[in-house]
Design a protein that fits this description.
Layout: E1 9-17, E2 23-32, E3 37-42, H1 48-53, E4 62-67, E5 70-71, H2 77-83, E6 84-87, H3 100-110, H4 115-128, H5 144-156, E7 162-166, H6 174-186, E8 191-194, H7 198-204, E9 207-212, E10 215-220, H8 222-228, H9 234-238
Parallel strand pairs: 3-8, 3-9, 6-7, 7-8
Antiparallel strand pairs: 1-2, 1-4, 4-5, 9-10
The structure holds adenosine-5'-triphosphate and magnesium ion.
Length: 241
């Protein structure tokens, strides 16, 4: 057991260069505690997705990444992936079973849950994301917003200690966005949410971090960070951009 005061996530001097030579992260230092929902903001290509992929070891860069006291490395991958659930930016990378129900039940079954219990849980999660009638469908045939919902249900079914969502509201219709915001506010887990959606950011973020060219350029409340970096698209409509 780690002491209660220890941060949930500790990242020290993390850098990552993709095989083609793109330096996507450059000396990132980041900490969050278990009570937070941290929103990651920043331009396209600034490194947000690359950063979160390091938090469950899908990418292993130079530097140190600790989640709940566990150092993320090749030896700890299965433990880290039990603790950290990521809803990917691209749902097609997440869904791979031949039915929606199997897909959502896959994670819990993989952790040892009995099939019937896992299917019951999967149905409950599909209900929660507003897809109660999709269980027999082929994930590949779903609409983009439906795929996103299935991916979210699949991660929720795992009850991760840290929930990471990369652009969760993309493709969701406005009622779906509202449902998701309500759901995220209800969920007790600490969260890291990567988003360009300022409504979502303001609704759930207890803190925001701003990425620029692979570095963290600023952090503060969501409003402070959005003001500092001119990150509110409605400014253009009001003529204050
Ligand atoms: N597989 C890859 N190979 C090479 N370069 C990559 C790869 N994936 C991402 N990059 C590059 O790394 C940088 C950071 O990309 P990343 O996807 O982390 O940005 P992002 O902040 O999530 O952007 P967005 O807001 O568009 O999702 C970009 O320059 C991108 O082109
Ligand atoms: Mg991204």
């Amino acid at each position: 057991m780690q002491p209660l005061s220890a941060p949930l996530v500790q990242v020290r001097q993390l850098s990552y260069t993709y095989p083609d030579g793109t330096r996507a992260l450059d000396n990132i230092n980041f900490e969050m505690s278990a009570g937070e929902t941290v929103v990651l903001l920043g331009a396209n290509g600034s490194g947000k997705t690359t950063f979160v992929l390091h938090l469950n070891g899908l990418l292993l860069g130079q530097g140190q990444v600790l989640v709940a006291g566990v150092s993320v490395n090749k030896q700890t991958l299965s433990e880290v992936r039990r603790r950290v659930g990521i809803v990917f930016q691209n749902s097609d990378e997440q869904l791979f079973m031949t039915s929606v129900l199997d897909d959502v039940a896959f994670g819990p079954q993989n952790l040892g849950m009995a099939p019937q219990e896992a299917f019951d849980l999967a149905r409950k999660m599909l209900n929660r994301v507003g897809l109660p009638d999709a269980e027999h469908k082929v994930p590949y045939h779903l609409s983009a917003g439906e795929k996103k919902r299935v991916a979210i249900a699949g991660i929720l079914a795992m009850s991760p200690d840290l929930l990471i969502l990369d652009e969760p509201t993309v493709y969701l219709d406005p009622p779906g966005q509202r449902t998701l915001i309500g759901l995220l506010r209800e969920l007790p887990q600490p969260k890291i949410v990567v988003t360009h959606d300022v409504v979502l950011a303001q609704a759930i973020g207890t803190r925001a971090v701003f990425f620029e060219k692979g570095t963290i350029r600023g952090m503060g409340t969501v409003t402070e960070v959005m003001n500092q970096f001119g990150w509110d698209p409605s400014q253009a409509i009001r003529g204050t951009a």
